[in-house]
Every structure is written in C-alpha cells, then in structure tokens.
Here is the input.
Amino acid sequence: MVERTRLFDILTQIVLIIGLVILFTPIYIVFVAASHDFKTVNMIPMPMLPSGHLWENLTKSWQQAGFSHVMITSLIVASGVAIGKVVLSAMSAFSIVYFRYRLRLIFFWLIFITLMLPLEVRIVPTYAVAANALSPVQGVIDFIASYIPQVSIQLPEWNLLNSYEGLILPLIATATGTFLYRQFFLTIPEELAEAAKMDGAGALRFFFDILMPLSKTNMAALATIMFVWAWNQYLWPILIVTDQAHYATAAMQLGKVVPGPSFGEPPVWNTAMAATLITMMPPLVVVILMQRWFVRGLVATEK
Amino acid sequence: MEKRVTFSNYWLAGLFIAPQLFLVFTFFYWPTGQALYWSLTLEPPFGGGNQFVGLQNFMAVFGDAHYWDSVIRSLVFALGTTAISVGFATVLALFADRGLFGHSIFKFAYFLPYAVPAAAVGLAFRFTFTPDAGIFGAVNHIIPGLWDPSRNGGQALFMIMLGQAWKMAGYNFVFLLAGLQSVPRSMIEAAAMDGAGVFRRMRDMQMPMITPTFFFLFVINITDSFVDSFGMIDVMTRGGPSRATELMVYKIYLDGFEAKDYSLAAAQSMLLMLLIMVMTIFQFRYVERRVHYN
Here is the structure.
C-alpha cells in the first residue's frame, strides 16, 4: 500500500475484525444454541458461551431427523450433480470448440441461454415434466407423426418423482459448466491439437489423453461449486420428493425441524440448531478444503 | 473466437453434445414452452383439453392486487438486500485491499457464509430473531411487544433481508476485492503523490473504477434474491404474517402447488422469466462495453 500510518493501519484492522465478527455471529449463535440444554436455550437473552450439551443435542437431532439416511441421500445427489456436470459439460464444450459443424453456434446458444433462468423461476412446468421425463421427446415424436404417421412410436413413461435421477438431472441441465470449459478450451494453444493430429491421434484420443489432464483445475473448481450448490438446494427437492422416508435430503429436513409451538409447547431450539449445524457442515468443510478452486471457479463462471 | 485446428468426426461431435442437449431440451426448453402454453390457456373445469384464452391469465394476474404486492415486495427485498450486502462488502473489500497483516485469513473467512444452505441461514436467523427466546428477543424485555416478526410483516421481511444479505456478503466481497486488485497500483500512487488521502482515493478513484463489478454484482444479487430466498422464506415465515413475506417465487409456488392453479402460476412464471431475462441481457450488453483498465 501507499502510505503506512499506524493510526490508519489500526483502523483497517478494526474494521476487518468487526466484519469478521458480524459474518461469524450467526454461525456462532447456531453453535452455542446447539450446545445448551432445553432450559438454557430458551433463556432471554441466551447465554453466549457454549455449555456442554452439544454432543447430546447432535445425537438427538441426528436420530430425530433421520440424518443417517438423509445425509447419504444428499451426498449421492450432490456428488451426482458434481460428477454429471463435470462430465457432460466437458463433452459438450469439446463438441462446440473442437468441431466445425453448421449447428454448432445454435447449440452453443441453446445451452448458453439456460444460464439466464434458474430452476426456481420455472418450477411449475419443470415439475410437470418430472412426472414423465420422456414426455418432451414423445411430444416431438407425436408432432412429427402427425405429418409422417410411420414414425409414430410410443415411448415408455419415465417418472422422476422420488428418484435420484429426479433430484439430479434437472440440476445438471444448466450451462454453467459448458461455458467454463469453453472459455478454458479456447485458451489452449492450437499447436497441441495440431501436434496431436500430426501424430495420428483422433478426436477421442485428444480429448482423453490431452484435454482432460489439462482440465484438472477446472474440474476441481466446477465440481466443488456444483457439490455445494446441489447440497444447498431446497425448493426442487421438496417438490420432487414425496417419499420422505427414502429420498429426503438434508436441506429439506430443515423445513421440518422448525420447532413450532403447536400444542402450547415452547419450541425445541437446541435440537433444531443442532440439525442446522449438521446440515451446514458438509458444504462448509468442502469449501474450507477446496477454497482455492471454489473461488477461482466462481470468478471464472461469474455464477 | 474459433479454433483453426478442428476434427472432422461429426458423429462424435453429435454424440458428445447430445446428452447435454437432451437435458436442456427436457428440463429447460420444453418446460418453458409448456409454461407459455399454460399461460395462454385454461383447463376447463369438467375436463377436456386446454382452451386458448389469449392474455386472460395475464389480465387475471395484473388485476390481482396480491400479485402487485408481491412484485413490489420482491423489488424492495431485492434492492434492500443488495444495498446492505454490497455496501457492507465494499467497506470490507476497500480495507482488505490494503493488504495488511492477516488479510488472507480475512479473505478466507469472509467467504464462508456463502456456502451455508439458504434453509440453514433461515433457521439460524429465525432463532436469533425469535421474539420469545434467542438473542434479539431481549429487546422485548426492555419494551414489551416491540419485536415480533410473527405478527409484524415489516419486521418479518427485514429479518429475511438480513439473512439474504448476510449470505451474499462474502460472495460480493470476493468479486469486489478482485476488482479492486485489478486497479493499477501506479495510478493510486500517483494520486497519493498529488495529495489525495486514503478516503478520497477510495471514493473518487477505486470505487468508480470498479463500476463494472458493482453492476455485475447488482444483477447477480437481485437474481439471487429472487431465487434463493425461497428456502429462507419457507423456513422462516412461510410467506406470512398475512402475506407480508410472499415474494414472487414464493407466490408462484403457492399458486401452483398449493392452489393448483397452473395457468395462473405459469403466467406469473413467464413474467418473472421476462424480468430476469431483461436484466441479464442488460448486464451482458453493459459488460461487453465495459472498460478494460490493463
């Protein structure tokens, strides 16, 4: 920095520390509330130092909200989205960048436009598709068949409600990753592809042996972002999952641990906060471990 | 930009892009088309196919006072959270940009709230601001009945705004700091030599120079406040008290899935899509023309 006056340096540190305190207070409150017993957590104001009931509350809410099962579901969904996204977007970006066919630009724009409209904005129709994921294809076939009756085919139904596919696939259908890979592929020197071709490598060989190893950083960034994003999804899971016993995710359980004063009982905040703590831990840990890639990916995708 | 060296195996090209196109078609284009269709038709009460009704559904939406309430509320919510969040993050970024001891720890820590699920943010803030326990409820001991978001709609909306602003602050910080660090040092040093003090430089040099970042964050924050607020609202207030926190996405959810009025929900979806698309296009156009400093 330009000048170093002691007074201003102190002011800087004070401002930054206040910021830190503000940003950490909510997480700290969750932690402290989860460590109190029922009586202490309902005191006004709640004592701001943790007491010793954390483990007790954690195990209690773990059992109540069925976290053993729910966490695994969330893990499957979040990993599924991360892996699916990494694989599919690498493939589609490769097709767009390294081949020159007439529909290429149209395909690019078709995928790119999806960046604009998040799933939450179009939940109602997307939900209707989920009852039979092949209905759009069937619609196209029926349309063609109304002119050329020979192509009339009846596809089987593919119901996505209460299934991992239903939780995963609609979340993959966005352009974030494709765009990230495209930008990256464009920065790769032409000589690489040229040399590969000269040595007789085909497109597949080039993709797997040269392009993919170069994309490791990209993959890590994209996978981290997508994992956290999918883990935190709330609206789509509560729509698509009606079979709570088998397919509930961790984030959607939080909608149910809300302690309501239904029968005149005071709300059970300590176990609710324990559940909050459990649910926020995995994405936090992932971000702490993968922070470098996460931030880089965010800046690259401008997501 | 185009590659000079390309491959010519077009079957492979098609095969590679097909899965993504299938997903985008199935879960994006078809549903969006369907929403358009529903928004222009009505399902007759005694069965049979949908009937074309023109803009009747849109008229119904526009004629609904609750809809306009939800639009205004969403805008207040969006602008309010963006102002709080970006403002807070700007202060932190300006100071963190000085690069003093420990700033890499701050950089790391500020970002963490962004990773917390919206539903968890909602529960944390609901507890903190619950009137009969928690932390903020203590004000009711001093002035009884002062704070009660379960009755006072304005307080409920404010509580959710704080949650959303808190979640986005770290994200905004990352982008603002990146923006500030791309401002050339030589320029700042020159201004310092000309006698501009720290605050003067912040106000008249650094902030104007990262206008594109501000603009980008403005659009992202507004979109995110429309989209990601759902989890928070559902966990904190369920749109209440008496619709005071019913934002656009939440109203679409209620109309579509609780009241099962697909046509009405679809018309609202189309309007929201239009709004977000206009904003995004605006942003792309602006970003294309943005000034490059280096």
Q: What stands out?
A: The two ends of chain B are 21 Å apart (CA to CA). Residues 57-288 of chain B form a domain with the MetI-like fold fold (CATH 1.10.3720.10).
